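re: ur question from the group chat, yeah i did fold both. here u go
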Amino acid sequence: MARILIIDDDKPVRDSLGAMLSAVGHDVRLAAHGREGIDCVPSFRPQLVITDLLMPEMEGMETIRILRQLQPDLPIIAISGRERYREIDYLDLAGRLGASQALRKPVSPARLLMVISQLLTRIGPLPLAPV
């Protein structure tokens, strides 16, 4: 199974995603915002990241940008309960910034597990090389 980093400021969402992914065998690390998530990348070396887009400290768009600099091939799933603000389509923008997938919250467990499986299968296992 994979090392998955979940970044979301909503504790119940973060905890439920973490519990679900741990239950199916993934090694999961949780972070409350982008800065906390980025800080754990060198030691945890995630093979996939799930990040919320609207968070305090460091929002998801900046988090995606930094993750792309650190690990260009890292699969990133962007999630957001708010699709649009005025003319900005957050999910579309996340994709243009480098998210591998962008999903609207709430995400069904079956859909999320399917997307994770597809992304991990597409790239194969990632090495444990330092970031």
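okk and heres the other one u asked abt
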Amino acid sequence: MKSFKYILIFPVLFIAIFFLASCNTKEPSKNTEVENNIAISSDKPVVLIYYFHLTNRCPSCIAIEKATLKTINTYFAEEQKQGRIRFQALNVGDTANNEITTKYQAAGSALFVTQLFKGKENTSDLTGDGFKYARNKEDKFIEILKNQITKYLNF
């Protein structure tokens, strides 16, 4: 009977480790020099929102992207038209995204909000808030994201 328990434990552990690894990210360095060639106005900040994901996504990962787009479209449509807010969903498995995924150390699902202003960048990692709230408390996540974007736009 004991061997039967061990036979059940190993597949469960394997599945748990797989899901934890697929959503794992490390926080990027803060206040680094702008490394990309985005033309920005020196008098107004630009906010970049990067949503990183794997090819196969869990319901929480999908909810983060959906709530992020809802936030941008509801509260920041004009800023997006002006180019002051830019959203990108990036598959970490796509080799075309290697440079940006390396920069943000994204190995799975992650949400970063970056402010570019006067040649500097500030980045906030909202991945934890996304997984905590986007699926079951969307309004709370939207409020957190909205506040961060507003802070970065009005720096």
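fwiw on the second one: The chain has one domain: 2-153. The CA atoms of residues 23 and 30 lie 21 Å apart. idk if thats what u expected
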